[in-house]
């Protein structure tokens, strides 16, 4: 009989890190991975350089039905802790922008480090495991059986199989099915950090495919509302770029997304421009500040084809207001196929925020993206994977 102290399902960011920490605490860990190799999402992350954390990561950078849930784990394993680990392995890194830390070299270094962190005498990684069933005996021992008949047994089981975004890489909703099997609720999963699609009148903007501009983008309502100042990119399907990916996590079907073009312009900039350059056209002013194709598309829609001196201040202020809060009504997202993460997941109400253990099922834990905690774009999701994996390993 293959007896371990803990079985961890999924050798991605959270599972690998948790396995290393648990192994270093002396536990015998069976780390089971469906793919042929561990850490596939880490390898493609950050354009192959892995944006492994964010200097500013805190609870406010995460979406969850319970915004307080992530606090404890994030406070106990911080970006500084992960940076110290990366430095111990001599992995060179740099801050790209907005606190986002990337490897100078390659994401392969992070996977190699996570594997190195797993003491070989304690952690057994088995890849290409197709889990056929997970059961729990009356003695509280979990048994994971593979479709080829191999079985693993342990008094603790950690669900670290991630979310279903990018199914082409083998991602699936396995975690949710397993959680439901044990009676745990799942917050409806939805694609997040995902491009938005435009239809109807907005579809005309798709002609701008390839054009990018700095904006402030807003979406959501009530407490689930957020605004991001980053670049937006027009695509042949709609809107993308960091600002849009960020707001997509807050956007719900039927809602609008507000975009502030020229986010640095003074409040009354068009009226001031009229005083200074009354012979100028709005199109010219926009072209001075924005990519020409975008400037033309906005000027066409604002339809003020006169010298500014001949436009009333009221009309100019209306144009300023429209540029400051341009409303798009996305008709959808590009879905899980293009989503960097999945929002929703195993309900935090079912788990201890200190240990990630299920209240209903002592010995059952869930960590990483499988849980209803979703980070912003920029290294926040990996920080959650490390922090939740650490909290779990401390409790095992
Ligand atoms: P993760 O998906 O890493 O791991 C889950 C593991 O479980 C996988 O190895 C999977 O094969 C395995 N598995 C699934 N089902 C199984 C089963 N039935 N049995 C056994 N194993 C199973 N985040 C960030 O902070 N910075 C970044 O730069 C990026 N970049 C990025 C780029 C792209 C293209 C994507 C798709 C995503 C990112 N992310 C990111 C998000 C980040 O990759 C993600 O949030 C973490 O990998 C989540 O870690 P987990 O360990 O929870 O899941």
TrEMBL record:
The UniProt record lists the keyword Transferase: no
Record bears the keyword Nucleotide-binding: no
Residue ranges annotated for the RsdA/BaiN/AoA(So)-like insert domain, each copy included: 190-341
Database matches in Gene3D superfamilies: FAD/NAD(P)-binding domain, HI0933 insert domain-like, Translation factors
Domain of life: Bacteria
NCBIfam families to which the protein is assigned, alphabetical: aminoacetone oxidase family FAD-binding enzyme
Descriptive protein name: Aminoacetone oxidase family FAD-binding enzyme
Lineage summary: Bacteria, Pseudomonadati, Pseudomonadota, Alphaproteobacteria, Sphingomonadales
């Amino acid at each position: 009989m293959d007896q371990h102290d803990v079985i961890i399902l999924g050798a991605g960011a959270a599972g690998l890190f948790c396995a290393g920490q648990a192994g270093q605490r002396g536990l015998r860990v069976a780390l089971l991975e469906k793919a042929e190799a561990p850490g596939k999402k880490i390898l493609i992350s950050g354009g192959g350089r892995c944006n492994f954390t964010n200097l500013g990561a805190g609870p406010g950078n995460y979406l969850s039905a319970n915004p307080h849930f992530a606090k404890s784990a994030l406070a106990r394993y911080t970006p500084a802790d992960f940076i110290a680990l990366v430095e111990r392995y001599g992995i060179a890194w740099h801050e790209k922008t907005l606190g986002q830390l990337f490897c100078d070299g390659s994401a392969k270094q992070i996977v190699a480090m996570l594997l190195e962190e797993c003491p070989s005498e304690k952690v057994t990684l088995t890849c290409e495991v197709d889990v056929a069933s997970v059961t729990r005996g009356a003695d509280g021992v979990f048994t994971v059986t593979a479709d080829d008949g191999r079985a693993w047994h342990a008094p603790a089981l950690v669900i670290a199989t991630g979310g279903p975004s990018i199914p082409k890489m083998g991602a699936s909703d396995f975690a949710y099915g397993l959680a439901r099997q044990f009676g745990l609720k799942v917050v409806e999963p939805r694609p997040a950090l995902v491009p938005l699609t435009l239809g109807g009148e907005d579809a005309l903007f798709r002609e701008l495919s390839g054009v990018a501009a700095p904006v402030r983008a807003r979406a959501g309502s009530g407490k689930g509302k957020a605004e991001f100042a980053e670049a937006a990119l027009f695509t042949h399907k709609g809107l993308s770029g960091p600002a849009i990916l960020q707001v997509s996590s807050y956007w719900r079907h039927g809602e609008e997304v507000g975009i502030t073009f020229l986010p640095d312009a003074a409040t009354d900039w068009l009226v001031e421009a009229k005083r200074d350059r009354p012979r100028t056209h709005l199109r010219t002013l926009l072209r001075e500040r924005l990519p020409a194709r975008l400037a033309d598309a906005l000027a066409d829609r604002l339809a003020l084809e006169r010298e500014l001196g001949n436009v009333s201040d009221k009309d100019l202020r209306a144009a300023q207001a429209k540029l400051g809060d341009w409303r798009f009504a996305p008709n959808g997202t590009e879905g899980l196929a293009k989503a960097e993460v999945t929002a929703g997941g195993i309900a935090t109400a079912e788990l201890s925020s200190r240990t990630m253990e299920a209240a209903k099922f002592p010995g059952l834990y869930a960590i990483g993206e499988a849980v209803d905690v979703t980070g912003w774009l920029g290294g926040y999701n990996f920080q959650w994977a490390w922090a939740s994996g650490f909290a779990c390993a401390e409790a095992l």
